Amino acid sequence: MGPLFFSDKVNFKNMLTLKTLRDDPQAVIEKLKIKNFDAKPIVDRVLELDALRRKYQTESDELLSKQKAKSSEVGALMKQGLKDAAEKVKAEVAEMKTKSSELLAKMDEATAELESKLVLMPNTPYKLVKPGKGAEDNEVVKMGGPEVHLPENALPHWELAKKYDIIDFDLGVKITGAGFPVYKGKGAKLQRALINFFLDNNTAAGYKEVEPPVMVNAASGFGTGQLPDKEGQMYHANVDDFYMVPTAEVPVTNIFRDVILEQNEIPQKLTAYTPCFRREAGSYGKDVRGLNRLHQFDKVEIVRVEKPENSYAALDEMIAHVESLVNKLGLKYRILRLCGGDLSFTSAITYDFELWSAAQQRWLEISSVSNFETYQSNRLHLRYRDENGKPQLAHTLNGSSLALPRVVAALLEDNQTPEGIIIPEVLRPYTGFDKID
């Protein structure tokens, strides 16, 4: 697809840092209204705490200077034999040290509260993001793929899975619970085929494959913004304080936590397959039938670290790449630009890919491609050296490439025939069969 942005006109100062709030707090408040987030109380408190912190710092610095001067007086007085005068100055120095400790404690307290407030603020949306309440206000920017013509008495994928014995939802309930299906026979092979197909296409497009852990520590969850915002949606191993990954974005992006990339090390393009785990609390009805919404699912991810001036061109490339995968699978799709109300906590802009499920007569989300600008890198302390050798915050981006469950749902439903389910030609070298019957 053609560019969705005009990269030479992009404003790259859309980042949420303390300096941004100091420079133009009202602009931040207005931008976050697009996400339906009232930032004013937090911004006001952050600026108040910042002023207090700087006040304590100034007072502490002045006191330290006086303390040093007084300390030097002690030695001079002792040399002159003025012991009583020296003891008096020593008492003044001790009093200054006590007051200095009190000031530093107040400064630390203000800093801790300030930081706790800052992490409660979402990323500011990019200028193309429109206001809106939720999914109903998202903008369709493109549609593609062939029209789907189903045979008579077409079945939804959960019935097809049962008919051909390729996915067992009841067995998953027995072993674990709802949302943990068991893939069997050709269903399991189809899963493996899709994972390898996506990874091979990603590596051919220049993404380096990595295999990360599927459990992360709290620092990793914080770095990419899942914590504290999405803590209730993540599975948590309490004893070790590890979190099961909701997406490979978390471990892969955290490869670069506390890293300064050199000029020849940026951009970074990585891809990874992981199982993903999400509690998805509150889901019900048709949204949870079959593969529509799972607690454990497979997903292949692409992640990029870019210089700010290149990140929107990179976003266009990622969208075009995901679109190429969908086209190769021969599926009907649409691309949406999310409105402010449907945009994630961490994202500056997101494009969702949805597949048409002909048997269910509904669209199924299978990919989100996002630019986080400097929001994640600010939390990760991820920087790169510019041409002058000065560290600068990088931009981070990621996208599903692709999430398997709803891809499988659409493949099964849209390719069903009276003789069986036809496997797309590009997958046959991976599956070893051309039909599920």
Description:
- The chain has helices at about 20-25, 25-35, 40-80, 85-120, 155-165, 170-175, 185-205, 220-225, 250-255, 310-330, 375-380, 405-415, 430, and strands spanning about 140-145, 165-170, 180-185, 210, 215, 235, 240-245, 260, 270-275, 295-305, 335, 350-355, 360-375, 385, 390-395, 395-405, 415, 420, 435.
- It is of the alpha+beta class.
- The strands form 5 sheets. It has an 8-stranded mixed sheet. The chain has a 3-stranded antiparallel sheet with strand order 5-7-6.
- Helix 5 (about 155-165) crosses helix 12 (about 405-415).
- It starts with 17 loop residues before the first helix and ends with a strand.
Question: Top keywords for this entry?
Answer:
elongated; 8-stranded mixed beta sheet; disordered N terminus; 437 residues; 3-stranded antiparallel beta sheet; alpha+beta
Class by SSE composition: alpha+beta
Number of helices: 13
Strand order of the largest sheet: 1-11-12-13-16-10-9-4
Q: Biggest β-sheet, characterized?
A: 8 strands, mixed
Principal-axis shape equals elongated
Distance between the termini: 36 Å
Write the layout of secondary structure elements.
Elements: H1 18-23, H2 25-33, H3 40-79, H4 83-118, E1 139-144, H5 157-163, E2 167-168, H6 169-175, E3 182-183, H7 186-204, E4 208-209, E5 215-217, H8 218-224, E6 236-237, E7 242-244, H9 249-253, E8 260-261, E9 268-277, E10 296-306, H10 311-329, E11 333-337, E12 349-357, E13 362-373, H11 375-380, E14 383-385, E15 391-393, E16 395-403, H12 404-414, E17 416-417, E18 420-422, H13 428-431, E19 435-436
Parallel strand pairs: 4-9, 8-14
Antiparallel strand pairs: 1-11, 2-3, 5-7, 6-7, 9-10, 10-16, 11-12, 12-13, 13-16, 14-15, 17-18, 18-19
Helix pairs in contact: 3-4, 5-12
